[in-house]
Amino acid sequence: MNALQQPTPHLTPVEPHRRRIRKRSPQQQQRHHPHRGLAVETTAKLAVNLVISVVAVSALAKLLPYQTLQQQKLQEIRAEVEHTEARVSRLQEELELLLAPEQTFQMMDRYSYRVDPNKISIVITPPKEETEPRSSDRDRPR
């Protein structure tokens, strides 16, 4: 039986045709994805803007406590300025009184211990309590 069979040719497995992969030139790639460059540029811009925004927000967060502290100091200084302005205006009025010619003698009397020789100072003292009866009181009949 073996003799009757025809010899079979050796079959080699046939590989399927592989497509040739061609390297595309930059022009062909650009034709295939025309907006890729624009997309990359826009993504880069967005990333840079995001980084700048994060830095700005963090800087503001750090500056807020400093700003409130400065506002408190400013309020204290304004209150002190108001107090000082009131004092200055009072002192200016007093200076005007001191420099007024009609007030000169009154101011000299007020701010010095010297007394005008034409004036007599009167000092009122409380009466002393008597411990002994007066001699005139003894002589009186009761």
Structure in words:
Helix content is 59%, strand content 0%. The radius of gyration is 57 Å and the shape is rod-shaped. It has helices spanning 26-32, 36-99, 104-111, 135-139. The model has no long low-confidence stretch (mean pLDDT 81). The protein is mainly α. The protein contains 4 helices and no strands. The chain has a domain at 34-113.
Oligomer: single chain
Helix-residue proportion: 55-70%
Strands, total number: 0
The assigned structural class equals mainly alpha
Rg measurement, Å: 57 Å
Number of helices: 4
Kindly report how far apart the N and C termini lie: 191 Å
Report the major sheet.
none
Q: Which spans of ≥5 residues are poorly predicted at pLDDT below 50?
A: none
How is this structure best summarized?
This protein is 59% helix and 0% strand. It is mainly α and 142 residues long. The termini are far apart.
